[in-house]
Structures are given as C-alpha cells and as structure tokens.
Amino acid sequence: MIFDNKEILNNYKWLKQKNRPMIISSNYDGLFCAALLNHHLNWNLVGYYNQESLWISQQAIEQKEDIIWVDLNILPKQGKAVGGHIVSVDGFIPKGFESSCNPNILDGLTANSFESKFPFSTLIFLLWLYDIKVNDDKMSKLLILNTDATWLKWQNYNENCNKWMQKLSNYNFDSLFKNVNTKSFDNQIDKLLYPTLLSINAMKEFGKLKSKFLNIVNKELIINPDWDQDSIMILFELISNHLNWNVPKLPKIIKRIDGEKNKCALKEVKAKGIDHFIKNKNIFSYAITNPHSFSYTTFGRIKKRILDAKP
User: Fold this and answer.
1) What angle do CA 270, 276, 278 make, to 5 degrees?
2) Which residue has the higher pLDDT, 305 or 254?
3) How sure is the predictor about 303, in pLDDT bands with cuts at 50, 70 and 90?
4) pTM of the complete model beyond 0.85
5) Among 289, 104, 285, 112, which residue's Cα sits nearest to residue 207?
6) What is the pLDDT at residue 302?
C-alpha cells in the first residue's frame, strides 16, 4: 500500500486545523511532536499522559471536546489521536480507534504483523504527513532520528524501514537516513547527541536495541510533569535552536489523575475477544507491545469523562 499524505489529511481533517489543544506522551517523542505541531499549526500543549497518569491544565478541561492526543492511542470515542502502536489483535478495530490516525491501522496491520509494523516515530510520520523539510544541520538530524530509536531500527530492521520509505511516498527520506548505517554515525550519536541529552536533568530510558558498530543502547528522556518543567523547557529550546521551531508554552497543570497500568498475555485477550476485554476492564488506552504481550491502562469505573474526574 502506498500512502498519500493529502488523502490522509483530507480523511482526518482535524490534522489540518490550527489552534487545537493537544495532550502528548510525556517523553522525548511526545515533546518533539509538540514542538512541531505548535510551530506549524499553532497547537497548544494542555497536558501529558504516560500510559498511567494524566496531567491536565484548566485549558484541557475547558477544551476537552477539541483535544488531540499526540503520540498516543486512546479508546474513548470522542478522542482524536495520532500515534504508531499496533492495536489490532486480529483485524478488528475497536470503535475508539476509528478516529485515530495510525499508520499501522491505515496499513491493516495486526498483532500477527510485527515484522511489518511502522518502524519510525510519530514525529517522522508527521514530518512526512506535512511534508516538512529538516534543516541541514547535524544535530537536527541526530535529534530527530533518536525519536523512538528510529536510527537503531534503521540499522537493525533495514528491510522493513525501506518498505515503509516506499509506502510514505514523495518525501526525501534518503537525505534523512544517509549514512545512518555506518560507524561514523554511531560516533556522532555517542559523542555529540547523547552527552547533550544526558546533561538534561530528567529520567533516562534505556532501550533493548543496540547499534551495529559500537553496541550503543538507545537513550531517551522520560518526563515527569510533577517536577521536570525545567527539563522540558531545555529540550524545547534545544529543538528550537537547531530546527528553528517555536518553543511551546508549557501548560499550568492543575491536577494529576492516576490510572492503573497492567500487562497480560495477548493470548488471554484473544481468548476473550478484544471488544469484550476492553469493556470488562474499562480500558482507556492500550498497546500490543510485542507479539505476545498486551499492555493497557484503566482509570477504574469512572462514569464521567476522565478529564472531569477528581484527582
């Protein structure tokens, strides 16, 4: 299947609208997406979600009907989202995901298709979607390719990455990925990017993939909005300095709503049926993280909308 960005934007018209409020994943990828969407569409950051807790501002409550969930996939039917997890167990798409712009859903991929899943970050999907050119700046490229360990996926799953380059038509991926599969690129990550990221005072997440040349393990920032406001601004300013994107205004968080994150075997979900499992557990969001595991979050039996719930 070959994707057409104009067709997708026509099918998901909210992706073209300006001044939308957004809640983002509270990590490196989400912050990068926030910077892009704020700069190009003037979307406003109103909260964060880390698949367990939800941090919201007064603006999020007042504009709850208009919120876009970025680098996320949520189930409530009124929620519009753009993200990249596999969410289909056997081809069935739960109603809450019908409003999600997700390359894996668009491509009809399921839990049986992990070798073919979208390998890049939500940020790179958005760069392609809006046909945004990247500055010819070494650090810009490193920052972008570190989202969702994209550079490591290029090195380790190159065949699938090349297939997706063909699917996402009419974008200059050759320039973005030039020389990524080399020892010199590993050196740039190790000596230029990671010292910069590690200097930011926030929790670091270490991935499982290793680079082919220097055995580098991916490192990404995980943000806790309770105390990482300074770190968020440092990363936004770093992005702005190299990509010339606007620095988003930080939301004034007024409450945190804590859910419960769980994991189970995917075969358990298959046995009960995904629709029944979602309703029985009152699931707010989930992801099929590998061919055997199902990770989900519930906020209990809250009858009202999550954004209206008491902390």
Assistant:
1) 90
2) 254
3) very low
4) yes
5) 289
6) 62
> Is residue 44 within 8 Å of 249, Cβ to Cβ?
yes
Across 82-96, average pLDDT: 91
DSSP per-residue codes, 180-242: TTSHHHHHHIIIIIHHHHHTSSSEEEEEEEE-TTT-PEEEEEE--TTT-HHHHHHHHHHHHHH
Which residue bears the tokens 């620095």?
247
Please report which helix (H) or strand (E) contains residue 243, including its range: helix 229-243
The gap from C-alpha 5 to its chain's centroid, in whole angstroms, comes to: 18
Judge contact between 288 and 89, C-beta under 8 A.
Answer: yes
* Residue found by looking up tokens 């993280």 in the block: 289
Q: 């930080």: which residue's tokens?
A: 250
Helix then strand then coil, % of the chain, to nearest 5: 45, 20, 35
- Please state, as a whole number, how many other Cβ atoms lie within 10 Å of the Cβ of residue 288: 23
Q: Give the pLDDT confidence of 168-223 residue by residue, as tens digits.
A: 999 999 999 999 999 999 999 999 999 999 899 877 778 889 999 999 998 878 89
Give the pLDDT confidence of 37-53 residue by residue, as tens digits: 999 999 999 999 999 99
pLDDT tops 80 at residue 151 = yes
CA-based end-to-end distance of the chain? 44
Q: What is the pLDDT of residue 104?
A: 96
* Residue position matching structure tokens 């190009």: 40
- Listed in sequence order, the residues at least 6 apart from 84 whose beta carbon sits closer than 8 Å to its beta carbon are 71, 102, 103, 104, 118, 120, 121, 122, 125, 148
Q: CB–CB of 46/52 below 8 Å?
A: no
Query: Which of helix, strand or coil describes residue 263?
Result: strand
